[in-house]
Design brief:
- This is Sucrose operon repressor scrr.
- With 320 residues, the chain is α/β, with parallel strands linked by helices.
- The longest helix has 17 residues.
- The strands form 4 sheets. The protein has a 6-stranded parallel beta sheet with strand order 2-1-4-6-7-13, with helices on one face. It has a 4-stranded parallel beta sheet with strand order 9-8-10-11, sandwiched between helices.
- The protein is 43% helix and 18% strand.
Length: 320
Amino acid sequence: MEDLFMRVTITDIAREAEVSNATVSRYLTKNGYVSQEAATKIQTAIDQLGYTYREHHNQFTSRAIEVNFPNIDNPFYAELFEELSTYLKQKGYDCILHLDHFQLQDFDYFQERFQNQEIAGLITSSLLNISKRSLNRNYPIVSFDRRISPKIPTIQSNNLDAGIQIAQYVLSHGKNNILLLAGAREDLYPINDRIKGMMRVFNNYHTQITTEALNASDSIVAQKIAIQQFLKRNTYDAICCTDDITALLAKQCTDDLHLAPLITGFDGTYLIQNLFPKLVTVRQNTKAIAEVLSDILLRRIKYPLYPLEPIYTLPVNLIH
């Protein structure tokens, strides 16, 4: 069967795609400019004709994928890494976990690993300090929930819709003095879609809203002290958090202060659902996220010039 596929030539691909041989060659070797329209036609022709050419695959020969997360204290990241590791293993790749501890990462570190053939691709959930020159080299990178550049595909949950669903649930229980509590300052500057969705609803119903944020790199004890200070400034009948861990910290603090506001979280990992089944939260589908992240990255590894969408958005479910 392979011999049959190998009989398909660059000329056949060019004829099918209605482009020149030179354009096909540039696409296969990643050497030179190819328009998005031409790249789409060429890849379609390759798929239709069953063209097999090992040399056109990406220059990176490593079978390792680096996964850059801020931490794994949040069980969401631990669950997502487990799903990524399992799925990519089926595709013949190993995962390497890199933790940046909420520090902005300089891309030089990852670029060196690419150039040394240590990794074939990068999945990041943190922002990268990456130059235009590095972006133009089409390194195989995909991002989860962080929009780094239109050239780096972003896979995200529908955070805006999730925020809307949470706000509607809170309002349906008659709450109108609300604390929006972000688990990291980066969630407020700029405001992330989760909070935007909540505010879009709350502002239409003349509720009283206060926004506060924790320092994500602080210890648990320091975060609890900060929450207690927020709670002593005002009395809230609902606390809407941007993640489940922050929601559970808020619950501990309100219990200590003998308060009983409605508390909502975000992420909905299986661990949190099993340990705290009464927590109102939004479930992100980690399995689906991992598969889309992996599939998009592997497409970029194999066909660096193939056009990809800048953003892929996955649905969420409110759990209550």
